[in-house]
Amino acid sequence: MKFRLTSLEKKWVLYDVGNSAFTLLVSTLIPIYFNSLAEQAGMSSVNYLAYWGYAISLSTLLVALLGPISGAASDKKGRKKMLFTLSILVGAIGCLALGLAKQWMIFLIVFVIAKTCYSLSLIIYDSMLVDVTTEERMDSVSSQGFAWGYIGSCIPFIICLLLVLNAGKIGISMGMAMMISFVIVAAWWVGVSLPFLKVYEQKYYVTRSEEKRGLLSQLGNTLKEMAKDKRILLFMIAFFFYIDGVYTIIDMSTAYGSALGLDSTGLLLALLVTQFVAFPSAIIMGRLARKVKSELLITVCIIAYFCIAVFAVFMSQQIHFWILAIGVGMFQGGIQALSRSYFTKIIPPEKTGEYFGFLDICGKGASLMGTLVMSAVTQITGRQQLGVGAIALFFLVGLVFFRMSAARGEQI
Prior knowledge:
Helices cover 83% and strands 0% of the residues. By secondary structure, it is mainly α. The chain starts with 6 loop residues before the first helix and ends with a helix.
């Protein structure tokens, strides 16, 4: 039987389409634009890559601190929609402000604010999956979200890319082209999110007795619950390592290619191909999840990413970056989508916001370690390839702990 999304599921998927435009901008045009600001200030390519990594790390540290708090607050009755809307608006305003920042340090500060709010919105968004679908449909719906997010984000990105690449031909400066691009992405982010914001209703929330405990007490109680459930605990440790590597590759790929001296236009086109490859790949993963256990599919994705990280160590030519981009596209959506739905199925439905807040510490919040390791190794050794090579180890450790978590699930 052909799988069809319900009206509510489609509107939930639309937010993936909306926010992915900002994700693509962060992975492509923003680091290249920051590189131009850094060069104007006389910064070396090694320091440029390091400072960009430190900015990503600061953003993820803030998310690690604020994620559990905002997640716990969103689990209270009627709070999810309000906090979700607030994080979108502040993030979009920050995106707009990037076009006004002309000094590299100010640009990084505004970027940290925008990316932090973007990440906080995703914590709440992921926790909403339990409100929009059923457990048996979660793998497919989650995969559809990432799939359409990849292809949908290409629309504003292609417009922005054409603007930037043809700025001189249409009589505007590169700075003006980037400013217009930031406006387009912010408008897309907010506009595509509106249909879901209009219809979303929070079905699961904490009881009144739990609300009276206060956020800190509630967070402490949840930590105790997580420590007792070995399946959840082992998965979160695994997620800490393997998704850390995934997000480090996403955040640092363009900056890494630029530091190696690869052509900027070629990098952007290669990453655009990633989006088109990721679209069918994520849908295929969702379909496979109806026939094959998601535990096996996640295992395959982790192994594939380990191979991708090892390959990146030896990357030196433009064609290598294209191969890397295609490889990432094949497995990126699957590992993210299936991890999201897998976690949703093993946690209490009324505390999804809080649990996803803690998961984000082990995910985007914990990618602090990945970007810091990559930046530090790059600066210490003076070789970008060694910085990327260190990320491969994250996938090996993640694989071991994930298999331990999966084994616990089979015993239940």
